[in-house]
Amino acid sequence: MAPVALVTGGSRGIGAACCRLLAAKGYAVVVNYAGNKAAAESLAAEIVAAGGSAAAVQGDVAVEADVLRLFTAADALGTLKVLVNNAGVVDMPARVDEMSVERLNRMFSINIVGSFVPSREAIKRMSTKHGGQGGAIVNLSSAAVTLGAPGQYVDYAASKGAIDSFTIGLAREVAAEGIRVNAVRPGIIDTDIHASGGWPDRVAQVRDSLPMKREGTAAEVAQAISWLLSDEASYVTGAILNVSGGRG
Ligand code: NAP
Asked: pTM for the whole thing?
């Protein structure tokens, strides 16, 4: 049976690129999505058509019952070896003195709790302490951690700062239990996330200010994630890798 990879927010963007790459490397992939069923099912069908194994599974990472359902679906595919905590959101540009508690709760629930709870469930399955065979987790941080995103979304930058601390702490907590935990910090990557933050032209507008004078692709980020998950990175844990073309 193929080892299983679970990618939260796997239906689009960086998550979808991870699903494709991990499937090509022989993983049975759980393609999680929040609302875009058509995109997730189309990606799962593409993987199956290419000879791989995949299941599209709806679930909001901020809702514990949904996360439990997601892991039940992963268990049905085989043994979980890999988790990518990719699901994440931005919000409309705003200053901190304009941010509602509703906005903050949504941001922190999805971006922070939505990585903690899937990791908790993954550790229960992967840790040698729990009878598992080990595994690897990669968290999606952001170059926004060091930039702070003033006037745009300081809440988003702070949520990713939490992900960095989470990565370092969790990596050390489970290092002796066969689990490696790392993070990537993408820079400006060409995905739908910018439109969802009310700024569809963002990539084109900032392109010239980027060190490489170009944005990154989801596939480029997925390559870094895939390497961190692989045995080639067997002595890498607690690392936070900038995949930002020099930004941040
Ligand atoms: P994206 O294109 O907006 O895709 C987001 C994915 O997450 C979609 O699959 C979406 O599902 C899913 N999702 C959203 N909310 C969810 C929830 N509550 N529960 C489960 N899934 C949920 O995003 P992206 O640009 O690929 O970003 C992926 C990750 O990289 C995020 O953590 C983001 O913060 C980080 N990142 C991105 C950039 C960038 O420039 N793109 C830069 C730095 C960091 P649906 O399709 O169902 O909506």
From this structure: 0.99
